Amino acid sequence: MNIGIIVYSQTGNTYFVAQKLKEQLAARGHKVTTEQVTISGEVSPGKRNFQFSAVPSVKPYDALVFGSPVQAFSLSVVMEDYLDQLSSLKGKKVAFLVTKHLPFYWTGANRALRHMQKICEGKGGEVLGSGIVIWSGSRKVKTMKSALENLTQLF
């Protein structure tokens, strides 16, 4: 399967996890490409003072994993705007990866995943599942391992 992992990563943490996922999916025999959504300008909670400098296409892929940090207890506005501008995900299998700092899932992770799912289903994508990585303290290793296992098993 040709899988695209499309990531917005402000600090590099989400991209790091995406690269680990790419390695695991490739080891299972998939063709995997990681692409980054990049911007110029500033991002802050509730403000969209940025422009896209790289907007990866979803067309070449059979399946997609969209990765984003949780920001201000929600999906990053960069990933939200990226997903909103996609014309269609019809016929695409879709999964999600979110990273966050605060140690509880209810501090934005679940909300971000629901938002991604709503956008992608509205564009015809077949949502398979998701993974959450908590990037603080001792939970980082455990949640990263769990998220990578969950996402790898989807494909």
Give the secondary structure arrangement, pairings included:
Layout: E1 2-7, H1 13-27, E2 31-36, E3 38-44, E4 47-54, E5 63-71, E6 74-75, H2 77-85, E7 93-100, H3 109-122, E8 126-134, H4 139-153
Parallel strand pairs: 1-2, 1-5, 5-7, 7-8
Antiparallel strand pairs: 3-4, 5-6
Helix pairs in contact: 1-4
Structure, described:
This protein is 34% helix and 35% strand. β3 and β4 form a beta hairpin. It is built from four helices and eight strands; from the N terminus they run βαβββββαβαβα. The protein has 155 residues and is of the alpha/beta class. α1 crosses α4. Strands 1, 2, 5, 6, 7 and 8 form a six-stranded mixed sheet that branches. Strands 3-4 form a two-stranded antiparallel ribbon. The chain starts with a strand and ends with a helix. The protein is globular, with a radius of gyration of 14 Å.
Supply database-style keywords.
155 residues, alpha/beta, 6-stranded mixed sheet, globular
* Terminal-residue CA separation: 8 Å
The helix fraction, in percent, is 25-40%
Oligomer: single chain
- Global morphology: globular
Give the integer mean of the pLDDT values. 93
- Uncertain regions: pLDDT < 50 for 5+ in a row? none
Please trace the helix and strand order, writing H or E for each element: EHEEEEEHEHEH
Please work out how many helical segments DSSP would assign.
Answer: 4
Q: What is the C-alpha radius of gyration, as a whole number of Å?
A: 14 Å
Please describe the biggest sheet, giving its number of strands, its sense, and whether it closes into a barrel.
6 strands, mixed
SS strand fraction: 35-45%
Quick one: how many beta strands? 8
Q: Helix- and strand-based class?
A: alpha/beta
